[in-house]
Write a structure and sequence with these properties.
- This protein is of the alpha/beta class.
- It folds into 2 domains: 355 residues, TIM Barrel (Alpha-Beta Barrel), CATH 3.20.20.540; 62 residues, no CATH class.
- It has an 8-stranded parallel β-barrel with strand order 1-2-3-4-5-6-7-8, surrounded by 7 helices.
- α4 packs parallel to α15 and α17 packs antiparallel against α18.
- The longest helix has 22 residues.
- This is Phosphomethylpyrimidine synthase.
């Protein structure tokens, strides 16, 4: 092919079929896209073995994308239900699916996804190593962790999260910091525990060069995990989080030297007034690498409604530099999400992403809103349903409460401001009580 990764191709000014698809979707020129990918400010996760992929670009200069976390667990082991969630998520417009399966025959599920699912696919090999080897955590060897990473690459996974910023030095700093909520990253807590049990260096840090060679071979995009992301707003922006981010910035530069694409993961729980600064710090330390955030959740008090706390934070984060939002469902902190939870999480995240694109002034972002404004002005209900981010729910709500007059709704009736302004400006009578 003449290139190893999408970044390598861009640096040679080779236009790949994935780049052509991304440029068309984003509505930007190829020269600009080539520059963004070559400089690491945009990534196109596209494993060479993921044959059914519909590629998307991720970067702050592009449309904000969303990721949906799914997968089996010991308590909820139903692959058919998880596959239903996957296909629903794809149909609802999720650009990426992350398989976080932690129980069962995970490789069968993963290979089914890379064979059938067109979304960008991500995994966390730390989880899978524990399932795959089925032995005590402390007995897994450094090389076995890396072998599972390679297995995921062979299976066609487009991006992988590795918690390589938590090395012996940052772990020591974390232990000194006395956090309120310790480590809430599942992968981070597992690798920290392994380091404590064995006394060894984090293998994803120690053998990072080996990881990069695997990424070059299959064109896997690295998602540098934030093991020290805050799990409550009291821990946001602390020394552990920032020190790890410094290390991730250094690892980003090392990956770019090998033409490996990189995203950097971020918070987490964080108060509203800290989000902009946190985004700007990441952009500085990681030289504009795409920032992938979980939320951020702007308050800790809303179990059952954390899709809302995350959407608030996600809209602000994406406005100020984040480019990839990991959805959060109403089930966050409580249980494995149901099919309906997944839908609510996706809708909330898509709203946040679109709101940020409008705020950033991305070309064409506000056109959707303009068309909705036109439909509302003319009281064209069918057109409003077509334009709604969730057409099914909009139609259902309208049908559940039928107005006396079809040009109104049951909230205002004939006092509807839109209806009456249309009438009066057309020289017609406003017949509210008739």
């Amino acid at each position: 092919m003449g290139y190893t990764t999408q970044m390598n191709a861009a640096r040679q000014k080779i236009v790949t079929k994935e780049m052509q698809a991304v440029a068309a979707w984003e509505g930007i020129g190829m020269d600009r896209l080539l520059k963004l990918v070559a400089n690491g400010q945009a990534v196109i996760p596209a494993n060479k073995n993921h044959k059914c992929l519909k590629p998307f670009g991720i970067g702050s200069a592009l449309k904000t994308k969303i990721n949906v976390n799914l997968g089996t667990s010991r308590d909820c082991m139903n692959m058919d239900v998880e596959l239903e969630k996957v296909m629903n998520a794809v149909n609802m417009g999720a650009e990426a699916i992350m398989d976080l399966s932690s129980f069962g025959d995970t490789r069968v599920f993963r290979r089914k996804l890379t064979a059938e699912c067109p979304a960008i696919l991500g995994t966390v090999p730390i989880y899978d190593a524990i399932v795959y080897y089925n032995k005590p955590l402390k007995d897994i060897t450094s090389r076995e962790w890396i072998d599972v990473f390679k297995m995921h690459a062979e299976d066609g996974v487009d991006f992988m999260t590795i918690h390589c910023g938590l090395n012996r030095s940052t772990a020591a700093r974390f232990k000194q910091s006395k956090r309120l909520l310790n480590l809430v990253s599942r992968g981070g807590s597992l690798i920290f525990s392994w380091m404590e049990l064995t006394g060894n260096e984090n293998p994803f840090f120690e053998f990072y060069d080996d990881i990069l060679e695997i990424c070059r071979q299959y064109d896997v995009t690295l998602s540098l995990g934030d093991a020290c992301r805050p799990g409550c707003i009291a821990d946001a922006g602390d020394v552990s989080q920032i020190e790890e981010l410094v290390v991730l910035g250094e690892l980003t530069a090392r990956a770019w030297e090998k033409d490996v694409q990189v995203m950097v993961e971020g918070p987490g729980h964080m108060a509203l007034n800290q989000i902009q600064a946190n985004m700007e710090i990441q952009q500085t330390l990681c030289k504009g690498a795409p920032f992938y955030v979980l939320g951020p959740l702007v308050t800790d008090i809303a179990p059952g409604y954390d899709h809302i706390t995350a959407a608030i934070g996600g809209a602000i984060a994406a406005t100020y530099g984040a480019s990839f939002l990991c959805y959060v469902t109403p089930a966050e902190h409580l249980r494995l999400p149901t099919v309906e939870d997944v839908k609510e999480g996706i809708i909330a995240s898509k709203i946040a992403a679109h709101a940020a694109d409008v705020a950033k002034g991305l070309p064409g972002a506000a056109d959707w809103d303009y068309r909705m404004g036109q439909a509302r002005r003319t009281l064209d209900w069918e057109r409003q349903f077509e334009l709604a981010i969730d057409p099914e729910k909009a139609r259902r709500y309208r049908a559940q409460s039928q107005p006396e007059h079809s040009d109104t709704c049951t909230m205002c009736g004939k006092m509807c401001s839109v209806r009456n302004m249309n009438k009066i400006l057309n020289g017609e009578n406003v017949d509210i009580m008739e």
